Every structure is written in structure tokens, then in C-alpha cells.
Amino acid sequence: MATPSILLIVLVVCVAILLIVAIAWVARDRRNAHRHIAAEEIRESAKDEARDVRQREAWADETAARARAAQAESDVKAAQAAGLQQQAETHRSEAVDSREKLNQQWERADSVDPAVHTPEKSSGARKEHQDR
After folding, report:
1. Which stretches does UniProt call biased (Low complexity) (predicted)?
2. pTM here?
3. Rounded distance, CA 130 to CA 128, Å?
4. What does the DSSP 8-state code read for residue 124?
């Protein structure tokens, strides 16, 4: 083989290698550009989703705040109800004591009254007085 032929073959091989490298380089750049575009689309979608998530979080926070307020109001109402229940029990106890004292007064009046002779009359008289 002649030297010019060898040089020509080496030159063609070098050009072919350079051409393959250039094609690979361009293909890699295009692939990277497509990946960059895809990444930007994903980021844009994530921004939209982040906005929706923030709205959902704000809604959840607002609902939790309303729940805490309702719970606090419920606790206040429960405390008020317990206080009223205690007052009712106190009033009931006082009413029972007053009723017992009143019955004792009726019995004393019946025992002092000479017109009342039998227990039926005295209990009947007492019932009449209680109804007034």
C-alpha cells in the first residue's frame, strides 16, 4: 500500500470518528434539551400543585381553628351546664328542706287545732294547704 492511500484511509477514519462524535454530541444535546423541557413542565405542574396544596393546608388550618373554637365553646357550655346542675341540686335540696319544714308546720298546726281529730283529716287538711 502506498503512503497516500494509508493517509487517505486514516483521514477517512478520522473524519468518520469525528462525524460519529459530532452526531453523538448533537444527539446528547437534544436529549438534554428535551429533558430540560420535561423538567420545566414538571416544575410548572409542581408549582400549580403547590398552590393547591397550600390552599388545602390553609383550609385544614381554618377548619382546625374552627374546631378548636367550637371545642372551647363546648367546654364553656359544659362548665356552665355543670354549674347550673350544681345550682339545681342546691335548690332541690333547699326545696326539700323547706318542704319538710312546711310539713312540720302543718303537722304542728294540726296537733294544736282541737277540731282535727284523726290522721286522715290532718293529712287531708295538709294536702288542701299544700295545693294553695
Report:
1. 66-88
2. 0.48
3. 6
4. H
